[in-house]
Specification:
310 residues; alpha/beta; 4-stranded parallel β-sheet; 12 strands; 44% helix; 15% strand; globular; binds 1,3-dihydroxyacetonephosphate; binds iron/sulfur cluster
Length: 310
């Protein structure tokens, strides 16, 4: 099908199904452009919590769609490609976390789970956080409690630096963000000496140390808008460049040493396509479901996050 036919079909089906289309900042530009809302994990969680649409089509990865389902058990939540997973979420299977908590019972951990994890891991946690509110959430954890932060060790280390709060960290990381190295950022800085560096907290310490701002994908947009610099090296997934270039056309954004360098695609995020979005609205599948007992337990820390973020 031609792009224009797909776009017309999506428009028609969206109205007929009373569907809202939510898209993460890492989706391809065509998907971002048809979405009702584009944002980071935190913004998308609030959108999912507030929507009155009957159907939520989530252009993002599985844990994001699952989060929407946890908050909206009676709504239908669809994802264009069910295979859109997350290597970071996979690094912390619920069975391994349950075993670890059992083996360390004497620590009576307060579990802070980064939203990039399965519903079953959320169900074992006390509170959820995103990159946009992690610092704030950790500051709210009752003093004196031992914190276990799962699954991203880099985000966890960054939150420790910011809050001064000691935490035990799960040994997980994101395959996209650990690909950036001190050398590649130094090279990009040499190629663009006037550019400021914005990096996601899932990057390693060596990379974060070279950044002018470390923040969530949503904050990247406001930082680049508010900052006086006109050029930025964007150290995160490549989809971010579409949103930045669209909203701030008078500024320049680089993914690396060259303007076209796209060495940092998330293979999971990129599983979704415009055609799959059309098919998913037409066929009302693939649908994301969560077993009710798991959903009920996962909703508690998720609602706590939303409450602590207001
Ligand atoms: P944000 O919540 O900052 O958009 O990050 C999501 C993510 O998957 C980062 O890899
Ligand atoms: Fe997961 Fe990394 Fe992809 Fe984000 S970029 S969805 S953390 S694999």
């Amino acid at each position: 099908m031609e792009t224009n036919d797909l776009l017309a079909g999506i428009e028609k089906l969206r109205r007929e199904r009373r569907a809202v289309i939510l898209a993460h900042n890492y989706q391809t530009g065509d998907l971002q452009d048809v979405a009702d809302f584009v944002g980071d994990s935190l913004g998308l969680s609030f959108q999912a919590a507030g929507t009155d649409a009957e159907v939520i089509v989530f252009c993002g990865v599985h844990f994001m769609a699952e989060t929407a389902k946890i908050i909206n058990p009676r709504k239908r939540v669809l994802i264009p490609d069910l295979e859109a997973g997350c290597s970071l979420a996979e690094s912390c299977p619920a069975s391994a976390l349950a075993k670890y908590l059992e083996e360390n019972r004497e620590k009576d951990y307060y579990v802070v789970a980064y939203i990039n994890c399965s519903a079953a891991v959320k169900a074992l946690s006390d509170v959820i956080c995103t990159s946009g509110n992690a610092e704030r959430i950790v500051r709210r954890v009752p003093e004196g409690r031992n914190i276990l932060f799962v699954p991203d060790q880099n985000l966890g280390a960054w939150v420790m630096e910011r809050t001064g709060r000691k935490m035990d960290l799960w040994n997980g990381s994101c395959h996209v963000h650990v690909e950036f190295t001190q050398r590649s950022i130094e090279e990009a800085k040499r190629a663009h000496p006037r550019a400021k560096v914005v990096a996601h907290p899932e990057c390693t310490l060596a990379v974060r140390l070279l950044a002018d701002e470390v923040c969530s994908t949503e904050r990247m947009v406001s930082f680049c808008r508010e900052d006086e610099a006109e050029e930025f090296i964007v150290v995160t997934e490549a989809g971010m460049l579409h949103r930045l270039r669209k909203e701030l056309p008078h500024k320049r954004f680089y993914a690396g040493p060259t303007e076209t360098c796209a060495c940092n695609d998330c293979r999971f995020m990129k599983k979704n396509t415009l055609e799959k979005l059309y098919l998913c609205l037409r066929d009302m599948e693939p649908e994301v479901t969560v077993e009710e007992e798991v959903r009920r337990r996962a909703e508690v820390p998720l609602r706590r996050m939303l409450e602590w973020s207001r």
